[in-house]
Each structure stands twice: as structure tokens, then as C-alpha cells.
Amino acid sequence: MMKKLLILLGFAMAAGAQAQTPSAKALAAKVDAHYNHLHSLTAHFTERYRGMGIDRTETGTLTLSKPGRMRWAYDAPSGKIFVLDGKFAVSYTPGDSQALRTPAKQLDDLRSPLRFLLGHTEIAKELDGLTLTLVSGGYTLSGVPKGMQQTVQSIGITVDAAGQILGMRIVQTDGAETSFAFSDIRENVATPDSDFQFTPPPGVTIINGVAPI
After folding, report:
1. How far apart are CA 154 and CA 128, in angstroms?
2. Which of 21, 24, 163, 213 has its CA 20 to 30 A from that of 140?
3. What is the mean pLDDT of the chain?
């Protein structure tokens, strides 16, 4: 009798867990709703790139603000910056004599998928073959991003049950991987326009080009 009760209890627990797990589309909609109600946010980020014999980890502060603005201010390496003002993106690394400017519509940078955090997209429509997997502390929504199929094999967005994005993992078609982990997330904070403007250091010129990772 005890063995049967344990088996029944196991089935009941499994059924309960399955019932509590949302579908990929339902969770994606929750993420969309969460960020559609935000005006801005800041977060500490850890960015790791692995590929082409390189294993590089960088850190800094990410600032996002509607409409379509973001700032990646790196503290390691210190002074590296990537700014998107909604129309143009500018990327600069200390020691370079040039900063690269790219029109937002032509931007093909691995930081650009973070537009999901700006609440301007519908994840279920942006990612083909959307799937959901359980991970420690939440879920991962994965798919192939529209418009980036030639360079990106898949994107995985890790979120908690409330729909807040905790990290992203981007796998390129050449096998290289870039991951972002976010912490100390603060929502609807003040973000002055100056945060999204780039003033080149003395002797540095801005040219049109493609921003490096």
C-alpha cells in the first residue's frame, strides 16, 4: 500500500510541476508585458565571448531607455563604450584613434538583441522555432532571430517567473558564443539624454563602420 501511495504521489507532483510550467508563447508574452511597462533600467553586466581561440570576459554597466537607446559602459576594459541613441550606434575602445558609427537600422552587433529589454518587440514573433527549457532559477526561451539568420544560429533568453530577463546567450553560425549575465537590475530610473551621447576624446575621429563586439 505504501509503495502505491508513493507512486501516486510521484505522479501527482509531476503533474503539478507540468501544470505550473508556462508555454513558450505564454512566457514570452509575460516578458513582453514586463518590459512594455518600463521606461528605463540599469544593470551590471558580465559579458563573455568564446570563439576563434579567444575566451574573453568583460564587465560594466548597461543603461537602457525608451525609445531605443542603450549605453554599455565597460569598467573592464575601462573606458570601452557602446552607445545607441536610437538613430546611430557609436563604439569606441580606449587607445583607438577612431570611433565607429553605425546607423541603427544597419546595426548587426551582438549587443543589438538586447532591444528585447526595451520592450519594443514581441519575442514570439522575433524568434523562429521558439522553445522553452527549465533552468536553475527560471526558464530559457530560445529561437533563431529573424533578420540575423546568416550570422546567428540561436539566441537563448533566460528569465525568471516574473518575466525579468536575467541573461542571454547568443550562438553564432561559426560556433562562437557570447553570453550576458545581468545583476543589480534597477527599473524606471532617471536616464539623462547625455547618457546616450558620445563625445570623442581629443584626437579621436568618428567614422562610419561596423561596430566590433
Report:
1. 9
2. 213
3. 85
Task: State pTM to two decimals.
Answer: 0.82
Which pLDDT belongs to residue 149?
82
Q: Per-residue pLDDT tens for 56-81?
A: 999 999 999 988 899 999 999 999 99
Percent of the chain with pLDDT over 90: 66
